[in-house]
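Hi all, a correction to my earlier message: I attached the wrong file for F-box domain-containing protein. Here's the right sequence:
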Amino acid sequence: MSWRDERLGLTELREPTTNRRKLRSAPYRLHRPHLPVPHVPEPPPEPQGTHISRLYPELLALIFERLPVRDRGRAAQVCRAWRDAADRRSVWRGVEAALHLRRPAPVLFASLARRGVRKLQVLSLRRGLRDAVAALPGLESLSLSGCYSVTDAALASAFAAELPALRRLDLSLCKQVTDSSLGRIAQSLKNLEELELGGCCNITDTGLLLIAWGLRKLRHLNLRSCWHVNDAGIAHLCGGGEARGTPELEYLGLQDCQRLTDEALKHAATGLPKLKSINLSFCVAVTDAGLRHLARLPYLEDVNLRACDGISDAGLAHLAESGRLRSLDVSFCDKVGDEALSHATLGLSGLRSLSLSACRLTDEGLERVARLSQLETLNLGQCTKVTDRGLRALGDGLLNLRAIDLYGCTCITPQGLDHIVKLPRLSILNLGLWHVR
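and the right structure:
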């Protein structure tokens, strides 16, 4: 080392003797020409350009949002980057998870919560309902339709705590559910807006009292085939007696509630001011007098009176006084005939859907129907007295018609159908055994 290096402060760092000894004793690579050298594959080159693996997670999420629901789940299994993108809440917005709950599945429930799933349909139930509800605090819709094993005890456990986000509950065909469950629902689901109880044949007027006491925000209630419900139960919903009522109700389904009479409609006319749609099909005790009360409802648009044997032409005259109906079904009301349509043309000119299947109609009645120029759907199945003359009138007057049912109209011919086929907006012509809706 020169004196210049020493002046600049540079010194030579020598390895200690021990290190040199280690190097001398270090193993050397053996030369083995008779053995093949293993081939180490080179790593794949990093994708360049616009390869999908280089997309930002936000773009992947936008792509996944447009996939079918089943494919979104499959995409999450491709790789970690896709899984993270597929777990974004925007990918699963509005999706309803359909599950078989045979046992508790905490990993599955945590995955649903992470993805922000707010709608749950239980296809079959053995265990795990309480855990599923607890794991999804933001649950907005829960369907248990057709789960015959649902009991009052299961619902009491699932709804032990309040669920302020739940807006829709479907218990249709849960035949073991009784009024006890409605009490629990009224306590824990105070923000409920839609309740389906069709086929819950153990529900009584007491259950409706509990609904009227706790579910003040209810807008949709279906009581189809709740055979124990009578006029007193409807009075509870309308705020009669000790009940607070359900003043926000817009739809009331009473199909096949055969104990109801005109008194129930009297209560509805005064206690359900926002009612827009009511289904009274197969309520055989309802008569024309009840329709006089129903016509007072200021927002009523849809009335289903299918197979109500007590309804006649006079009842439709009462409904025509309202002048606001958009949909009317009087199919299989064998006392309804041509005279009813004279009232309809005067007061129900805004009708969009009219069902007259199996009514006592003739061509004279169809000539009156032809004056309902805004009609889009018309059901005339099994009107055996209708001929080509009536179809000619319909073809001339119903230029907005989109669907018509002529099943069982035995007196019409292909020449008569020509008047219907030429309608400019017609898309459905039914001559078979089904009902146009």
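Sorry for the mix-up. The first helix runs from residue 3 to 7.
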